[in-house]
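Shift notes (night). Ran Glycoside hydrolase family 2 TIM barrel-domain containing protein while the centrifuge was going.
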Amino acid sequence: MKTRKIIFLTTPFILLVSAILYFHFRKDNTQISRTVEVREVNGKYSLYRNGEPYYIIGGGGVSHFEELKDIGGNSIRTWSLHNAQEILDEAEKNGLTVTLGIEIGNQPWGEDFSYWNVKETNKKIEEIREIVLKYKDHPALLIWGIGNEVHLFGGNRVLVSLFINRVAKMIHEIDPNHPVMTTTTAGINLDKYGFMRVLCPHLDILGINAFDRLHLVENEISGPLGWNKPYIITEFGVRGPWETQDTEWGAPIEMSSTENAQFIKHYWEIIRNDKRYGLGGYAFYWGHKFEVTNTWFSLFSKNGKKSETIDLLQESWTGKKPEHHAPKIDKLMIWDIVQKQSIYLDASNTYEVEIMVTHDHKDSLSYEWEIRADGESAHVQSRHDYIYDYLLETDQNKSKISFTTPKTEGGYRIFAFVYDKNGRFATANLPFYVVKNKI
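Came back to this:
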């Protein structure tokens, strides 16, 4: 009787322990079988791919895959599904993975998408479901990225977050083999993103676009109200135009490619320092793009030449210096006017501009010059992207030239491009304002 009582009392305990062990080992086995997953060990998070640790050393962009692989990179990030099949295939060919962006609404932030409209959100989820089914088994796929900075202008943050969580839940149901993230900015409220843990329990990773606030991310993520889960720096690059000094008429002052390179190298060192939550980062922009200017974020020239930033990333990522190094910009000046002053020039007048450069083979360098009008919007290319023909008529292949200012009053920039014979370039520009009378 006593033995029976002991068995009766201990049976629930044995069943409980058995259940715990079963689910524990089943969870571990499930984790091992997943293609890509986030694992947590002793409070530290790591990304695993095919059972091996995978730290993201990436570029944000959709071109120059071979160059990324050559300097030690392993992954690229997209913002939309445009040419997704081609991008995934090209990445696989070059031994790279892809964080594949799923656009919600139109770029840049999906302001046209109504998160409160149940019919519209249901339709969007079904559209995304077809996308996930199409690409979930591609060997280059690393992570699903739901939206980019949609919290900024997408509407009510609670509604936006709840919708993102619905998408993440759906993705996990049909693709348990890849983590899901959404991307926000390293803004002033990043230290309060703990609300995302409550509203988005199906999100595995938070993507953070961080520029001059990058040094604050680690502390803000791990604060009492912070995300306190894994994150990826989905964009790291030079200071954004919203973070720089402006001229008196409001034109942001752009750093030279040499200054940019030092910033990005330093930012990568910061990214590597977070051993608890950080899973890596994507350099921005891996390619050539127009945003404010055609050089602000571009790590490549319009004709595919490499900037100094790429040389320094290679050193950081591989520990090896490149055989050839890009030219270094020392100074760009109109007469004796230094870069960070507000420069006013007379309309239809002639001035001299000079670019000063350091390079091992300075005599072999070539030069190009452009003048472009500063436009009204940072995101509308046609308002900026105009090259004045009169400047192209000058002998551009010199480090010092004369140029004639436009007739029309307004804000402009003069750009200098310096090329070596080894596929490298450097660039700098000066904003100036054309007036009828000299000030």
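The first helix runs from residue 2 to 33. The chain has a mean pLDDT of 87.
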